[in-house]
Amino acid sequence: MLYTITFNPAVDVVMNLDNLQLGALNRVEKDSYVAGGKGINISVLLKRLGYDNVATGFIGGFTGDFIHDSLTAEGVKPEFIKLDAMTRINVKLKAQEETEINGKGPVIDAANIEKLFNYFEERLTEGDAVFLAGNTAPGMTSDHFVRMAQLCQIRKAHFVLDTNKDLLTACLAYHPFLIKPNADELSEIFQTPIDSLASVIHYAKELQVLGATNIIVSLGGKGAVLLTETGDVYQSYVPKGQVINSVGAGDSMVAGFVAKYIETQDYVESLKQGAACGSATAFSVGIAQADLVDALVKEIKVERIGE
């Protein structure tokens, strides 16, 4: 089974208005409500491609109910730990400039954290995949990321990690199946400029030395580089299209890659699907639909590079 974890999900309220005036009444021309969170994005993309999956994490209140219902409508199976507190709300203001106001989220106490780990300890088996994406919630620490990495290693499940540098590096010793830093994050981890493809590959290999199994480094408009556990290096290129919104593109890439790899064990085909998923979401309003992914897969070029 494929599982996603979102420790601190949100309901994203997106408000469109011509001109935002601070200190005055502003009237919104259009608003929308979206279940937000990196793991949730992964779950939606997976299901739209036909991969059954379970979304987990913590939700509460009427906002938590909205997330539960939204995922159910997508065909995702939501199995969150229910909190007494309310899931946070993020406000996205789209005017002459984009402004975001993100809620903090409820504090997760030790009892609810144990409920989530008990859930995985009862179910996780060899060959499953766990996507842990995003950051900690209030009340949680890097130890909880490490604990999930350890559990996946013990159960021989694929642990897929997409998070900030401190949480990522804390988990490397447990050999995550896939991590997805970008060039800026590589630079931050190693405290050195990353200004060429050669330096990207060099420092990504350093992360493999530290324990990462496979690494995708996103290069924005230049595509992505994949370093595999077999020592191969591949680069994918971005297809033509208009970028509408980059939110969720990286999540979509990770989801598409891992799902195809579990299905085929083919790195090239997996990178093609991952790159197509990332681009399809970037070219869409919201998470991509399967028909656009299928169309873009045919346009994705992947080359083997390096030695």
Break the fold down into its secondary structure elements and pairings.
Elements: E1 2-6, E2 10-16, E3 30-36, H1 38-48, E4 53-60, H2 61-74, E5 77-78, E6 81-83, E7 88-94, E8 98-102, H3 110-123, E9 129-133, H4 142-155, E10 158-162, H5 165-171, E11 178-179, H6 183-190, H7 197-210, E12 214-218, E13 224-227, E14 233-236, H8 249-264, H9 267-282, H10 290-297, E15 302-305
Helix pairs in contact: 1-8, 4-5, 8-9, 9-10
Task: Report the β-strand fraction as a percent range.
Answer: 15-25%
Summarize the amount of helix as a percent range: 25-40%
N-C termini distance: 36 Å
CATH topology of the largest domain: UDP-N-acetylmuramoyl-L-alanine:D-glutamate ligase
Rg estimate, integer Å: 19 Å
Mean pLDDT: 94
What's the number of helices?
10
CATH superfamily of the largest domain: Ribokinase
What is the CATH first-level class name of the largest domain? Alpha Beta
